[in-house]
Write a structure and sequence with these properties.
With 312 residues, the protein is an alpha+beta fold. The protein has 12 helices and 7 strands. A 4-stranded antiparallel sheet has the order 3-2-1-5. A 3-stranded antiparallel sheet has the order 4-6-7, with helices on one face.
Length: 312
């Protein structure tokens, strides 16, 4: 069965495979377009499965916000990882992160696996497109996490530090402000708080929200230091409590000193802003996704990798 150059072009557009791979697939399928397409998809899935074990700690964080039409607002942050920073600059990858983040806005939960089953705007599911991207771009890529925040009245303010493209970057922040106040002024406040969050890296909204295991580790470290002081037990106990309280204050958003003046707690900044706009403002939630945080990156010898590739 003969095939034309138009068939090669069409097969390439539908599968994302390279031109020579498409030509070879059509040759092996004796011109049968459907068989060639199936063969390329199987090949792509196999390649994607092989790449899925490789560490992906680069990529992009996407943020998006929408209004529910009734005064409420919803925002979402999504982290999608790749193996190298080069892929983060790839238009195909950026389009995928942007579209996936928009789809995530309508998701009913922060379940990544459920998000992968959602319909992709250009067809298929998000998971299907992700697998195809792994096969065509040639790097492992993963949707790592997502988080949604919302307010019934007020604003969700998005912020991306050092954006690679609009609403895409390495640090993505969302700030949820519940208030009946002027939205323009709330946006200004939210932007300043978002910049603070990007810089100050709070670990929780309030001290009581800090992870219990984290607090216990800090208490142990403080206990070890206090023991080394040789002071009486009652003094050591106060030293430990003071160290833990200081840690909580410095790592909870509401008690952190606002980076804009380095002297006013964020909670007071929000309270004062409420007086200025004539309506109470409550900072109800936030998101801070920093690309690759917590992922253990593999050390590699780039020169050796190049030599191995040439030898292969």
């Amino acid at each position: 069965m003969a095939y034309t150059a138009a068939d090669v072009k069409k097969l390439r557009e539908q599968t994302g495979a390279g031109m020579m791979d498409c030509k070879k697939a059509l040759d092996e399928a004796d011109g049968d377009f459907a068989a060639a397409e199936d063969a390329l998809r199987v090949k792509g899935l196999a390649a994607a499965a092989k790449k899925s074990s490789r560490t992906a700690a680069e990529g992009l964080v996407g943020v998006a916000v929408t209004s529910d039409g009734n005064g409420g607002t919803r925002g979402v942050a999504v982290e999608v990882n790749s193996e190298t920073d080069f892929v983060a600059k790839n238009d195909q990858f950026q389009d995928f992160v942007r579209n996936t983040t928009q789809v995530a806005l309508g998701a009913g939960s922060d379940d990544v696996e459920a998000l992968k089953q959602a319909a992709y705007p250009a067809g298929g599911t998000i998971g299907d497109v992700l697998t195809n991207n792994v096969a065509t771009i040639g790097e492992n890529q993963q949707i790592r996490r997502m988080k949604t925040v919302s307010v019934s009245q007020g604003v969700i303010v998005p912020y991306v530090h050092n954006a690679a493209a609009p609403n895409l970057g390495k640090i993505g922040v969302l700030v949820a402000l519940e208030s009946a106040g002027d939205k323009g002024k709330l946006e200004e406040l939210g932007k300043q708080i978002a910049m603070h969050i990007a810089a100050a890296f709070p670990l929780a909204l309030a001290a009581e929200d800090l992870d219990a295991d984290l607090i216990e580790r800090e208490r142990k470290v403080a206990g070890d230091k206090a023991a080394e002081s040789g002071k009486p037990a009652e003094v050591q106990a106060k030293m430990i409590d003071g160290a833990v309280a200081k840690f909580a204050k410095e790592n909870a958003l509401l008690s952190q000193l606002f980076v804009m003046d380095n002297k006013t707690p964020v909670a007071q900044v929000v309270e004062q802003a409420g007086k200025d706009v004539g309506a109470k403002i409550v900072l109800t939630d936030y998101v801070r996704f920093q690309l690759g945080e917590g992922i253990e990156k593999e050390e590699s010898d780039f020169a050796a990798e190049v030599a191995a590739a040439v030898a292969g």
